[in-house]
Amino acid sequence: MLVPHSSSLILLGTLIAVVFLLVLNEYRKYTKNLRRERDYYKTLASVDTLTGVGNRRSLDSRLEEEIDRAIRQKNSLCFALIDVDKFHDVNLRLGHAQADIVLRLLADAIKSSIRKSDHVFRFGGDEFAVVMTNTNITKAQEVAKRIFDAIESDPILFENHISISAGLTEFPNSDFNLVDFRVDHSLLASDTINQASFALLNKAKNGTGIAVHNGT
User: Fold this and answer.
1) 51 lies in some domain
2) pLDDT tens-place string over residues 94-123
3) How many domains are contained in the chain?
C-alpha cells in the first residue's frame, strides 16, 4: 500500500484551504450584493422617485412611529401639509416637464428648511407633508416660515411665481384625550393628517399662507 508523501498531503491541504477561501469570498460577495439589492428595493418602495423624498407609504409608517414615541415620551409633534397654489395653472403654463422640476425644487427647499430629526414626504400630486418631532405649534410655524422664505429665495420658483399654502396641527391637542392614546396609532395618524388637511382647506378659501389647527 502506497502512503502519500507528507509534502503531497501539505499541498492537498493547501489547495483545499485555497478553494475554501475562494468559495467563502464568493459567498460573502453574493450575500453583500443580495443585501445591497434588498436595501435598494426597500428604499425604492419608500421614496418618491420624482422628488427623492419619502412617499405616502413611508409617511404613514413614520407618522405612526413618531406618534407612538410622542405618547411614550410625553412630547408633542407637529404635522404640516404643504400645497402648491393653483398647481393646475402651473402645469398648463409651464408644461409637465417644467412642473416636475418645480416639484423637485420645492422638495429641496423644504428639506433645506427643516431639522435633521424632521421628515419630509410627497403626500401626493402637488402636496408635501412634514413631520416635525418634539416640536410645539409655535416652533412649527417658524419652520413653515423658513420654508416659505426658502421658496421665495429660489430664483426659478420666484421667477415662475410659485407660491404655497400650509396647514399645521400639533399632536396631541384638545381633540385627543387619553382614551384615544390606547387605540390603533394608525387612527391617530389619520386624524392628525385630517386636521392639517382641514386647516389647509380653510386657508385655501382665504388665500395663501399658513393655517393652524389647534384643536377644538
Assistant:
1) no
2) 999 999 999 999 999 999 999 999 999 999
3) 2
Nearest to 48 by CA among 110, 95, 2, 94: 110
Concatenated DSSP letters for 14-35?
Answer: HHHHHHHHHHHHHHHHHHHHHH
Of 152, 130, 142, 138, nearest in space to 208 by CA: 152
Please check whether residues 41 and 67 belong to one and the same domain: no
- Tens digit of pLDDT for each residue in 47-81? 999 999 999 999 999 999 999 999 999 999 999 99
Cell 397654489 locates to 85
Q: Which residues are catalytic?
A: 126
Which residue segment(s) compose the domain that 38 sits in? 1-46
Cell numbers that stand for 18 in this block: 485555497
Q: Are residues 139 and 198 in the same domain?
A: yes
Q: Say which residue the cell 450584493 belongs to.
A: 33
pTM of the model: 0.78
Please check whether residues 11 and 67 belong to one and the same domain: no
Asked whether residue 12 is domain-assigned, the answer is yes
Are 62 and 54 in contact, with CB atoms under 8 Å apart? yes
What is the widest separation between alpha-carbon atoms in the chain? 102
